Amino acid sequence: MAKLTKLEGSTLIEVLIAMVIIMVVFTLGIQIFNNVLYSSPSPKKIQAQQQLDAFAKDVKRLGYIEEPEVMVDSILYRFSIDSNDTPGLKHLEIKATQRDMQLGQIHVLYQSKQHEE
Fold first, then answer.
1. DSSP notation for 21-37
2. Are 94 and 108 in contact (CB under 8 A)?
3. What's the CA gap between 117 and 102, in Å, rounded?
């Protein structure tokens, strides 16, 4: 007669426990990944802030705004001037929006000049 040998292996309970542990680890990993992904600034916000800085520099250099609204790469930039009591100085606020979501804003105090065409 042939001698039966006992095979070594895992029981069903051990396999199920290992699967539950793996699922918990993956769930925690996905949550951490989502937190990191959504907490970092989006590339559109970074692009909008860089464009706002460029517009502010241009307005300071020129001394006036050319248009009240400008669209660049599907981002709308709105320029609004506040009146103040100081002659020759103006306060400008530039807001960047995309699909009614504000991406950024900047405030600029500049010396006004006459627009020559």
1. HHHHHHHHHHHHHHHHH
2. yes
3. 32
Could you tell me where the beta strands, DSSP code E, fall in the chain?
A: 69-72, 75-82, 89-98, 101-111
* pTM greater than the 0.70 cutoff: no
Measured CA to CA, the distance from residue 63 to residue 112 in angstroms comes to 5
What are 33-46's pLDDT values in tens digits? 998 888 777 888 88
Task: List 106's β-bridge partners, or say none.
Answer: 94
Domain spans in the chain, listed from the N-terminal domain onward: 12-39, 43-111
Burial tier of 77 (Cβ tally within 10 Å: 0-12, 13-18, 19+)? buried
Q: What are phi and psi of 92, to 5 degrees?
A: -115, 135
